[in-house]
Amino acid sequence: MSGNFLKAAKQGIHDWRVYLLGTAVSIGFWVAGFWIVNTPIHRLIEREAVLKGDSLDSEFTQLQVQQIIQDSAILSYILITAPFIFLCIGIFFVIKVLHQRKILTLISADAAFNQQRFLSGFFIWLLLACVQTSFEYGFTPHHFAWNFDPGQWLSFLPVALILTPIQTSAEEFLFRSYFMQALGLFIRQPLFLAIAVSLPFALVHFSNPEMERGALWIGLTYFALAMFLALITLKDDRLELALGVHAANNLFIVLLVNTQDSALRSPAIILQTVPTDPRITLLALLLMMGAFYLIVFGRQGRGRVESSQSRVKS
């Protein structure tokens, strides 16, 4: 753990006041993104309702708008994930203009993207998720239902493949990169640093509907995942593994196996009709994280690819 990833913060302007401003600007872009994405979609639906003869000011019409959004997996998914495009733009603007350093220093100190490292994180985590779910299905097959609708799934596929990596990458850039590099200027101990950036990540997910299963245990699950992503970033001294893991995790949920109470509603191939006990969910996640760590970092099995062929310079 050389710490070069954290030292990337010193390549540009790194005054703490600039980081405070950068945080405000990034989140401001994100909030603006929700308005930019949601407003035209709501207006379009309302216009269609008016053409059908409904009164725009009636409570019925407003409820109808919400019902249309709720009934459309694609529409609701776009409304949730598309604003993360603006979060990415905000972070990139902050890095380039306020901090005056290369955007790819969010990923590595040498401003390079290691494609092999990203793919390793993605496919190893995807495999572990499939294995874990297969075990769970083996014990409780009655908790799962076949949900595959070819038309819906194929229509949703390009939306998921485009917006999901943007959403997960935006979260990684904000929490595991921008925040962690900023706090790394003041917090030297890696464990404390990981905790400092993982708490806000867990807190912003407390509004998710799955919290009703048990806020304490689900909250701990989000915190554990955030800690894991932070620690593998510090261990690998770059962000690609976390980018790959997070993208694989969310794509697995929205395309392959989703739950009825998921914050990311989707026409997944399999629907888990009875949510897993949140304590078991946390335990399964910890086992997956341990297996991932052993595969990637254990006994020279890291498979680190240093070849410049797998890097894209900024």
Describe, in plain words, how this protein is organized in 3D.
With 314 residues, this protein is mainly alpha-helical. The protein has one domain. 67% of the residues lie in helices and 5% in strands. It has eleven helices and five strands, in the order αααααβαβααααββαβ. The protein has helices at 4-7, 16-51, 59-71, 73-81, 83-98, 115-139, 150-183, 190-203, 215-236, 240-256, 278-297; strands spanning 112-114, 144-146, 257-259, 270-272, 311-313. A three-stranded mixed sheet has the order 2-4-3. The radius of gyration is 21 Å and the shape is globular. Residues 302-314 have low confidence and may be disordered.
Question: What is the average per-residue confidence, as pLDDT, rounded to a whole number?
Answer: 89
Q: Count of helical segments?
A: 11
Head-to-tail CA distance between termini: 23 Å
Count of distinct strands: 5
Strand percentage? under 5%
> How many structural domains are formed by the residues?
1
User: Over the alpha carbons, how many angstroms does the gyration radius reach?
Assistant: 21 Å
- Sheet with the most strands? 3 strands, mixed
* Strands ordered across the widest β-sheet: 2-4-3
Class computed from helices, strands and strand pairing: mainly alpha
Unreliable residue runs: 302-314
- Listing every helix as H and every strand as E from the N terminus to the C terminus, the arrangement reads HHHHHEHEHHHHEEHE
Q: Helix content range of the residues, please?
A: 55-70%
Overall outline: globular
